[in-house]
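User: Here's a chain of 278 residues. Predict its fold as tokens.
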Amino acid sequence: MRILVTGGTGFIGKRLITQFRENNYKFVVLTRKKFKKKNFIYLDKNLKDASKKILRFKPTTIVHLATNFQKNHNLDKIPDMIEGNISFGSKILELLKDKIKLFININSAYTSVNGKSYDPKDFYSSTKYGFEVILNYFNKYYNFKVVNLLLADTYGPNDKRIKLINILLKKNKSLKINNPNDEVNYTYIDDVIEALNLAVNHKWKKKWNNFSIFSNESIKIGNLIKKIEKIKKNRINFIGNKKIKKNFKFKPRYKKLINWKNKTSLEKGISLCLKSNI
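Assistant: Prediction complete.
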């Protein structure tokens, strides 16, 4: 097994390649940052030089973590979101379509808010679904297997991303929360890495496989704040929008990844995050 990782310098990616090193896997990481390190391939603008190195490595498995997440979109952000979430993955597929055996696509749980069909929460989720459709096309005409993993929100120690849970863990000033009754679902980073490792090693029989990665604890934002307050022993002041009447409920489109379950409770995960910041 020879693994190509995209998005390997992000929060999840860094943890995953650490796991790969510990397991002595053969892998390379595609990156837009120049690293003088083994296992890293720099992505030049037109992929000309990178393509040669990728083909020379001869990957059999792709773990596609690369993403351009934006909470909101506008005219300036849309081109980069399309490039990061649709075009980049499409180029990798075109390059390796007849050479790989397995493509693991890290997708968004929020491509569906009704839990049954395509029903995106935001423009970002729409772009993630757009790539899913393109991946389906390549999978139909070429002989490789796909694990399409819909991932809910993730968290863990030393997470620098601008995520609600990270803001709540660090900030004590007054916050504006759109709707405290909206549900969120957070999966601890160690559990996420275990799931990805399982996906890489499982002997998949079907050509296309849909699964989700999410925890057992969907929780309203208001109750999440109370839980963090209890653990931190600090009050978090927030202002909710009373005009919003519709509440978002977390409804995963697919069942959990086969043979996997999250082990870290939200309470334990929050405590681990707080200890890492002391």
